Amino acid sequence: MAQLFDLALINSALRVLTPILLAALGGALCSRVGLFNVGLEGFMLLGAFSAVAGNYFFGNVVYAIVFAIIVVSLFSLVFGYLSIHLKANVIVVGVAMNALAAGITTFSLRAIFDVKGAFYDNTMVGLPKWNIPIIENIPVLGPILAGLTPLVYVAFLIAGLMWYYFYRTKSGFRFLAAGENPLAARSVGIRVTRYQYGAVLASGVLCALGGAQLSLGQVTMFTEGMTAGRGFIALVATMLGQSGPLGVTAASLLFGFMDALSIRFQGLALPTHFTQMLPYVVTILAMFFFKDKSFQQDALKQGTSSR
Amino acid sequence: MTRMLLQMDSITKKYGEFSANRGIDFSLRAGEVHAIVGENGAGKTTLMRILYGMEQPTSGTISLNGKAVSFASPLDAIQHGIGMVHQHFMLFPTFTVAENIVIGHEPGSGVRFDRKQAVSIVEELCETYGMKVDPEAVVSSTAPGVQQRVEILKVLYQGAEIIILDEPTGVLTPLEVKELLEAIKQLSKQGKSFILISHKLNEVLEVADRITVLRDGEVTGVVNKGEADAALLSRLMVGRELADLDRRPAQPGESVLEVSEVTIRGSKGKPVLDNVSLNVRAGEIVGVAGISGNGQSELLQVISGLASSDSGSIKLSGKDVTGMSTRSIREHGLAHIPEDRYVWGANRTATVADTGLMGHQRRLQRSGMLKLKEIRSLVSGWVQKFSIKTGSLDTSTQYLSGGNLQKLIVARELEQGTPFLIAAEPTRGVDIGAMETIHGELLKRREEGTGILLVSSELTEIIKLSDRILVMYEGRIAGELSVNEATEEKLGLLMAGGTLQ
Amino acid sequence: MNKWTKWTLPLLQPIGAIIVGLLAGAIGILIAGGSILETYAEMWKGAFGGMYFFTNTLSRATPIILIGLGAAFAFRAGFFNLGAEGQMVFGALAAALVGLYLPGPGWFVCIAALLAGVIAGGLWSVMAGYFDARFRVNLLISTLLLNYVAVLFAGYLVAYPLRDRSGSAAMAQSPMLDNSVWLPKLISGMPLHIGFVLAVLAALIIFVLLKRSVIGYEIRMLGGNPLFALYGGVKRGPMMIGAMFASGGLAGLGGAVEILGSQYRYIDGALSTANYAWTGIMAALLAGSHPIGTLIAAIFLAALQTGGMGVERNTEVPLEVGAIIQAVLILFISARFTYSFLKRRKENKSDGTAV
Q1: Which of A63, A175, A239, C45 is the most exposed place for a label (fewest CB within 10 A)?
Q2: Does pLDDT of B268 surpass 70?
Q3: How far is C141 from chain B, CA to nearest CA, in Å?
Q4: Which positions in chain C touch A280 (Cβ < 8 Å)?
Q5: How is B173-186 classified by DSSP, letter by letter?
Q6: Is residue A60 situated within a structural domain?
Q7: Between residues 274 and 303 of chain B, which touch chain A (CB distance below 8 Å)?
Q8: Does B317 touch chain C (CB under 8 A)?
Q9: Range of A26's domain?
Q10: pLDDT for residue B199 is more than 50
Q11: Residues of B in contact with A171 (CB under 8 A)
């Protein structure tokens, strides 16, 4: 047991939860303005790919991330245009965006790099892994924070900023208002669609960062479908966290921990199939215990069902 | 003549072929309360949407203080000192009162929103205008009367000189209505001007300095305070004398509905339905009066099987149906005109024929397949009988007007031919013609021996149709009156939680 | 004139979407350095050029049609079942198991295998439906996540207990089915098998069921406005279980016919990489959940894939160009949902409910 649960586990949990946390924060922004963003998965996949592509083209991690942000932002604007402007069903658009992201990435993998399945190039540099001078030597904290990428810190920083934005600023107040009652918000001159576009764009940026952590953080490569449902897990984290920055962070911690545990289990004699199942099963189980409040309110109104 | 603060000249608004407003003139003095009355669809709302910048007039001009203006959006109107309190409150339920009032013009330095300052601003506002609210209360936990004050304070905070109130008393108790009318008088003394849209003539007569009557998009009369009475106004509104309903005293028979001691415990410790008992006999109409939100919806849902009760029992034609599914209850003899036609009563994406079929589908079938021919002839029979205006039976339900959809729903439920019928808000939002048809049909059903439970937030409708009247207050039956002893005053008192002793 | 517009208007958007999709594909082709006309000509040939390619396309369409019908059925009832992949995988796995281990004459085993596919897919789907109906576990998310669980579980079975150890043991796959239990071919020498007939029949049955039957009526009303259906006496719980079983069962059948008619063994990942499940869901979305429309859309999408393979064989352009066309198509079609979405009042928070 001790071998399974040690400080290194927390360290690896922090690494793997980062993509989920970033995407989930993006999902929270969207759901606060009434957009259930099923497209997080696709956003993140495209982010992972364009981060690798940018890295390959520019040979620079910072440029790679900027490139990923630009690509995914444009992509998220398509989502925004269809679901906000044309008022298409957000779920249908989200599903289609996921398909499009899968198509674009596999196509580009062939068209640009002429490989199938995965792309790896040893000239590429991954994200730097920080060992912070003084903290490095502190007993417990040192091993926990050893060799984390800057994006891990960025993710937590963004969660904090989001909290400040929501609950301390005028703009954040209006953002929440736009989501709570769009009609009333419009009646006092709040431009609801602007906030909605902002949320979608921000979720694009966050997913780009999440994708970059996936493809440039642990390993420096892109494989087809490498997000493997993390976008959907992030969506559950959004729901469990009731779209609040702190709740979402807590939920992401849980899922990140499960992810890390499943990686850890792979060292054991168990078939990898079952260890890989762990995050999905835990996510489903979590939905039994923590339910999105708004769903319950809807259900109460209706007496019998979950909608 | 004193100079008009606001002048609207020959406003016309066309939607395609249809004119919602035709050459309407309207004016408002500073400190005046000017009421607009009229039927549903007379054009009141359209006129106000134009004034508030939500719609652009097809022709006509608006001037403020003698200067021509045009508003591209509500924001424009607000900046020109026009504020509107909508019929359905534009509030954020999870926000506090103070947050709701300052939204759009939040205090604070830079990007920071200073909530403490917001509270003190609201306290000052309350002081200035003599209206009381708790700035730190969460809006969803406050009473409708308080929410109305919040709306008015919000408009005042935005700097409104002209305040439009659209059907402001619909959700208020008689006491709250009184307080509101008092507040309007008070504020108009302080120089604020009001446009009051209403169809409740007694309230209008009490508070308005001038009354403009609209019918079919045109002004049919402008009368000053003291020159008008309710009879004159309703003649101007309807354009003809209304036929009195021909009704004989009820001859009640056996009980068709018996509700005994039904309780639903709410989530907040306060019961939603508290030990409710009532019965409806064949051949009588029992009216349930009450401010909406006092348990009427839940009562109907429990009776029709859409919600379950925590205790108590319900009998339909002598048979215990407690806890049965909606389908079994319907099979035991219940028809139900639902309170919200769009939420419960129709599928907007379905065709008129499909919406009309609901509840009959298990009857009009042969070995699991629908008898389409019979269904179509049945529904087209209703379309003729109730003169429902629809393109065809295959038109999508969403294209029916509210009144026509309501007639379709009423026809559908009457066709069930059950011994017991729930009629919830059977005429909400329909025009006078449709209302007369529906009322006539309900009375005819009563003559034929159907027991009817009528729930309505319109006291006039309750008094006009019912043989007995129950008043609901906070989930309880607060009192019962026969139609002969019932007056609006007595009912109003019970509705507000008072007693008759 | 009026009749004209009545018939052409509903077609305008799909046609417009196809044009935009082909334009997006053209951009992809240019990026890959191919010639647009030549590529599209190859695509046409790969999908429809000659009897072999045509029947190959229909054969590929077969599981897509069945899965698409399953998705469409659930969407019509208002349930966003995105678990087609897992349901298909379990259907395929069950069919393979029954085909391998059930004794009896070939035709009997074959029918039993098809039924096993339906039941396995159906039950896996009902589980998610039950979780939603009973515990309010969001259906959309649970069906999505259960896909991963199903694929991994099936992968485990063929990697360990059921692994074919006879031939080259490199692949995780089950042993080959005896050819007495294979689905018969429609035309000898061509890939098309009798499963296609099943798929077309299923589309017709669902069409009639939805349009003419009492249950179909109740399903449509439940999908259009669940509260209206409840009010009218439709029982949501049993309907949900039934609709989810039918939906998952069709996906399971899709997996089963693919095993019994084309692949003859369960190969780990073969169904997932061919992307049958998502293509089926796309077909349903493309057709607005209309059963006959789903049939046509499924054949069209299958043609994009088989055409893409033709393109890859004969040009420098990768076959994924088909995937791009498909996704762009869906995006543009989804805008059509505008009106139906507006109709549902106060629905600012969408969850597991559909179209």
Answers
A1: A63
A2: no
A3: 26
A4: 145-146, 148-149
A5: -HHHHHHHHHHHHH
A6: yes
A7: 301
A8: no
A9: 5-118+147-291
A10: yes
A11: 111
Q: How many CB atoms lie within 10 A of CB B16?
A: 5
For the CA atoms of chain B, what is the radius of gyration?
A: 25
Handedness of CA B482, B483, B487, B492 (dihedral sign): positive
Confidence of residue B501 (pLDDT cuts 50, 70, 90): low
CA distances from B261 to A95, B280, B314, B335, C117 (A): 50, 15, 9, 22, 52
Structure tokens at B388: 């429902």
Q: Sort strands B33-38 and B210-215 into parallel, antiparallel or unpaired.
A: parallel
- A137 part of a folded domain: no
Contact B94 A177 (CB under 8 A): no
Which of the two residues, A265 and C126, has the higher pLDDT score?
C126
Judging contacts by C-beta atoms under 8 Å, the chain A residues touching residue C142 are: 284, 287
Contact A181 B93 (CB under 8 A): yes
- Average pLDDT value for chain B: 88
Q: Mind listing the pLDDT tens digit for each residue in A69-128?
A: 999 999 999 999 988 888 788 888 898 899 889 888 988 888 888 888 888 887 778 888
Q: Report residue C179: phi and psi, to 5°.
A: -75, 0
Tokens of C88: 């298909």
User: Rounded to 5 degrees, what are φ and ψ at C308?
Assistant: -60, -35
> Are the beta carbons of A307 and C323 separated by less than 8 Å?
no
Ramachandran sector of residue B318 (left: φ over 0; alpha: ψ -120 to 50; beta: rest):
left
Q: Per the domain annotation, does A138 fall within a domain?
A: no
Give the SS3 label for residue B350: coil
Asked if A246 is an interface residue toward chain C (Cβ–Cβ < 8 A), one would say no
Tokens of A193: 């669609």
Quick one: average pLDDT of C103-129? Answer: 95
Q: Does residue B444 register a pLDDT over 50?
A: yes
Interface with chain B: mutation pick from A32, A89, A163, A170, highest number of B CBs within 10 Å? A170
- Parallel/antiparallel/unpaired status of strands B162-166 and B59-64: unpaired
Say if residue C3 is exposed, middle or buried (CB neighbours under 10 Å; 0-12, 13-18, 19+).
exposed
pLDDT at A4 over 60: no
Decide if A29 contacts A165 (C-beta within 8 A).
Answer: no
Q: Which helix (H) or strand (E) holds B211?
A: strand B210-215
Query: Which chain C residues contact residue B343 at CB under 8 A?
Result: 227-228, 345
Q: Is residue A221 part of a domain?
A: yes
User: The CATH number of the domain where A62 resides is what?
Assistant: 1.10.3470
What is the distance in angstroms between the Cα of C149 and the nearest Cα belonging to chain A? 6
Q: What is the pLDDT of residue C179?
A: 86
The b-or-e profile of A30-57 (16+ CB within 10 A means b, else e) is bbbbbbbbbbbbbbbbbbbbbbbbbbbe
Cβ-contact B191, B135 below 8 angstroms = no
Q: What tens digit of pLDDT does each residue of A133-169 get? A: 787 788 777 777 878 888 999 999 999 999 999 999 9
- Spell out the SS3 assignment of B385-432: HCCCCCCCCCCEHHHCCHHHHHHHHHHHHHHCCCCEEEEECCCCCCCH
Q: DSSP secondary structure string, C248-305? A: HHHHHHHHHHHIIIIISS-BTTHHHHTTHHHHHHHHHHHTTT-HHHHHHHHHHHHHHH
DSSP label at A238?
Answer: H
